[in-house]
Amino acid sequence: MTELLEGRVAIVTGAGRGIGRAIATALAAEGARVIVADNGASIGGEDGDPSVAREAAAAIGKNAVAFGDSVASPGVARSLVETAVKNFGGIDILVNNAAILRDAFVFRADPRDWDAVIHNNLSAAFYLINAASAVMREQGKAGRGGSAGYDWGRIVNIVSSAGLYGNLGQAAYASAKAGLFGLTRVTAMDLARAQITANAVAPFARTRVTDIIQPANEAQKTYKERALKIGAEHVAKLVTALSSPAGKSITGQLLGVRGREVFLFGQPRPVAKIEAQPDGAGRLAQDIQARLADKFTDLTTDLEAFNTEPVL
Description:
Blueprint: E1 9-13, H1 18-29, E2 33-37, H2 51-60, E3 64-67, H3 74-88, E4 93-96, H4 111-141, E5 154-158, H5 162-165, H6 171-190, E6 197-204, H7 208-211, H8 218-227, H9 233-243, E7 254-258, E8 261-264, H10 281-292, H11 302-305
Parallel strand pairs: 1-2, 1-4, 2-3, 4-5, 5-6, 6-7
Antiparallel strand pairs: 7-8
Helix pairs in contact: 1-9, 3-4, 4-6
């Protein structure tokens, strides 16, 4: 490898398996020292097993340290950042990858499952950004970046096409991932002066999520077959690129990666407008239909939108 990240310190959540492990391995291979954070829970967030993080860290080698607690609380998030500082002297890269999944149609969902998914997939990411960015800013002021200034700070949030398109039965998961993109934008704005970047990556790769898909029709069956072909190393390559010195001018962006394809997504902006007339809401609804309907976004799910052969 090129030792592209020599001297950098990274935290990767959900790093014991799948995409997170691939990211942690890739960062370490490029010279970064990595905290492998994973409480080893099931895809639904139950039955934690801290040995998952320990095994992954051992496989990565001497530049990796395991952290086996759930980071879905502010105190544990601070402890995780402190672990990076204590073991490796600082924190330069944060990858928020950990996520759980509890699917149900909105009319059947248990509100407790909603709370758990939002807490784990969105709030935990904020807690870590809050703790890590404060340390990153202080490092910059202390000269960690050398005479040229601190330009090492990188935050990458792993989102999902489900949060962009929506998908049947995934209200909590999609809402958390959509919220995580909003958090990415604000983080990029808040940290721009400190030269700390924040980007969102929507991955398409084989994960525990794709493994448990139970196809309801031929289209979903085909989607699963294609998804199972795509290795997580492609996601890791993009995250490593964003974490590299050359990534310092990329911030506030929403990127997707599917095999060797890398997508830059557009972000919501007005596409048309009309002026409401003073004669009531009924007229306004009619005008919206008559004058804007050709620009409406349809109800295509993310599974349907990306149901094509990936470039491998």
